[in-house]
Amino acid sequence: MAVVLAMLLVAGTASAEILAPQDPAQAVAAQLDEVVVKEGYRTAEALRHEGDLQGARAVLRLTYERVRTPYLLWPMAELDRDLRHPLPGLRALREYTDRVPAEEQKGHDPDRLRRELRAQVARLRISTDEPGALLIIDGEQRGAAPLADPVEVDPGRHHVEARGKHTVERDVVAWPGTDAAVNLRLAGSRWRSPSVLARWFLLGTGTAAMIVGASLWADPGCNSGAMGTCTPGPSRTAGIVTFAAGAGLFTASVITLIFDERRSASLRATDGPIARQATR
């Protein structure tokens, strides 16, 4: 990291010397930028020594957004390696080698850092039973199934989604340097989903309760009273209550199933153009 600080000092001094005779305002702005970069770097270095790698990376990123000096890209790539975020690390390293001349990369070994980052990359091999289904990883569209190549991701948990006639979602864990096979079955998936199965279960329960309640309701269940009179027994009252509860379950289940079907049809109508566009 000391090498980076020396490079920042040299770069800042050189830029100030070049700009000073031409435009004093630009020279002042360059000196202010140099102060911002040095303070940002020192703050990030202190956080790194304290073990707060996420904080150090955030400081460097904010500093780089303020002053886009390529010399900050090297420590950013190193922190991405330590945090196991190889994809942003590879992007930072690529920009560093493109913008910093080779003679100014002394003390750094881009090939070694690149190998270390590449060794951390995880890959997802996604397959579906519906060609043309739109594949989405962590909210980002990755194209239509089948994908020709595995999708490279950072290690960790990822949310994978396939949208076709139905929608299937799954959380998967990708390990550094490994390939994870993800098979998403869309055929009949909506009817196997827990929410839909629960609605069908309630529908069946409501139907059974209505049948039992009706049979109890129809049975007078007389209790013999004085003068041979017949008063309804408790079974008839229980039948009325059971029938009413079953009718409520039945009605609620039918309404939610109809709503779910209409919502699914709306999603298919919305996702169709996206999937066709991804296929093209």
Distinctive features:
280 residues, alpha+beta, 4-stranded antiparallel β-sheet, 3-stranded mixed β-sheet, 9 strands, elongated
Explain how this protein is built.
It is built from nine helices and nine strands. The protein has helices at 2-19, 24-49, 53-66, 73-82, 86-99, 110-118, 189-192, 194-218, 234-279; strands spanning 122-128, 134-137, 140-144, 151-153, 156-163, 167-174, 179-184, 223-224, 230-231. The strands form three sheets. Strands 3-2-5-6 form a four-stranded antiparallel β-sheet. It has a three-stranded mixed β-sheet with strand order 4-1-7, with no helix packed on it. A hairpin with a 5-residue loop joins β8 (223-224) and β9. α2 runs antiparallel to α3, α4 packs antiparallel against α5 and α8 (194-218) packs antiparallel against α9. The relative contact order is 0.08.
